[in-house]
Prior knowledge:
By secondary structure, the protein is of the alpha/beta class. It contains ten helices and nine strands. A six-stranded parallel β-sheet has the order 3-2-1-7-8-9, with helices on both faces. It starts with 22 loop residues before the first helix and ends in a 14-residue tail after the last helix.
Amino acid sequence: MRMRPTLSWTPTEDLPPGTLDPQPVVDALSDGGVLVLSGAGISTESGIPDYRGEGGSLSRHTPMTYQDFTGSAQARRRYWARSHLGWRTFGRALPNAGHRSVAAFGRHGLLSGVITQNVDGLHQAAGSEDVVELHGSLARVVCLSCGALSPRRELARRLEEANAGFEPVAAGINPDGDADLTDDQVGDFRVVPCTACGGILKPDVVFFGEAVPPLRVEHCRRLVREAAALLVLGSSLTVMSGLRFVRQAAQAGKPVLIVNRDPTRGDRHALTRVALPLGTALTTVAGRLDVPVDGRTPDDTRP
């Protein structure tokens, strides 16, 4: 029997309460050398839901696993139909105040790097550089046979041509870009193969149940070793892919600070958890540091 990946986490111990004062984050950033680790919560204000927060998509949606995708042609048809529809909305999402604040911190030399668990590319769109995409990017497609990479927009064009008239209405969009469709809505959606070898195409993202590439993990571990502190933004840290870096930082004696409205699996390793929305917390932090966001000074309210 296949083991299902860990999708949820329930606290089994009393965790320290969160605070509404982001001053510890201000203090850490003012010293510089802070490594950011972001999760789905930072993108909710851009219209992309998270997995586990209030109204999170796991309450109605089980993400595709690597084992299901590679083992079933029907699962791939269902995935690509839903993902093709979701991409139309997902690809139009814009960076929010949280992403823009992180980019501003980077421009002012306060960060040592950014690791994101997200696959939406919004950190880069906001202006952050050298972002490590821990779980890959929906903007790329990879062939499982020959390894060829291609742009998602190219695949979207091919799927449009192969499925003229495919216009179902989705019940919702999920953090992995997957739209909620019924099997009847999926119908006989046509999946297209790799143009180079005819192989199976997969988004260049790490599915649940799939391992993050070891070289990518080691790169992130090095970033943690070199950082002065770790700032976690909008991640429940339920899955080990992100939690391991929190544990590494804590074991090395580096301050770990978390901004997340709900308790996380990393709270016991953290100096503090700021229980505020990301946009509110980070723009407040930017103001206290006198760091302009979007080229404005923090008190500039002109349009």
